[in-house]
Amino acid sequence: MRAAALITAAGSSQRFGGSMKKEYLPLGAGTVLSSALSSFVDPEIFSYLVVTIPENGKEEAEYALRDFPRSREVIFVSGGETRQASVLAGLKALSGYDPDVVLIHDGARPWCTPEIAEEVARRAMEAGGCAPAVPSVDAMKILSRDGFIIDHLSRETSFRIQTPQGFVYRDILEAHIKAAEDGGFYIDDTEIYGRYIGAVATIPGDERNRKITYQEDLAP
Question: InterPro entries this protein is in (predicted)?
Fold first, then answer.
């Protein structure tokens, strides 16, 4: 199996605030971005590493990865105006390598483990698509636009879906091209895959594999 990891780090960190992109903030011995990449460093499993970045932002991204193993080549790709557009740009950048499977992961999700990444890749190869899922602890509701509860989701069947989300490469590329053509806005890559290709399998996720969205998410 030849797998690729596509890390999304082209966003503006608008909700996070501050003067530095959240992916470039120090974390442990490296940065948020280098930690997010660290789950995909094993060359026996992940042959290609792609990181989407802001346009003209390669120098900053390289500096954020200064502690990442130099033995692993990282392909930087300028992202689009949305995460969806950035993922499509990253997928197209992999066309010359044609991996069997690609795992799409948030650059602001630094606490994934190699075990989760490897299991997602393995299951995606079997099922076509796979993502980590964690049970919802809070009561899940659907609200109207003016803030009233209009539906109540079953706790037994509602889950939070994390990244990395893994897919057969050619299928998710096809799905993303069609999604770009239809002009729709999709919540994540599992929705795009489900819209155009088929059902996505899940594996148990990890509560520690959380995404940094706000300043308080960096707290231990």
Answer: IspD/TarI, IspD/TarI_cytidylyltransf_bact, ISPD_synthase_CS, Nucleotide-diphossugar_trans
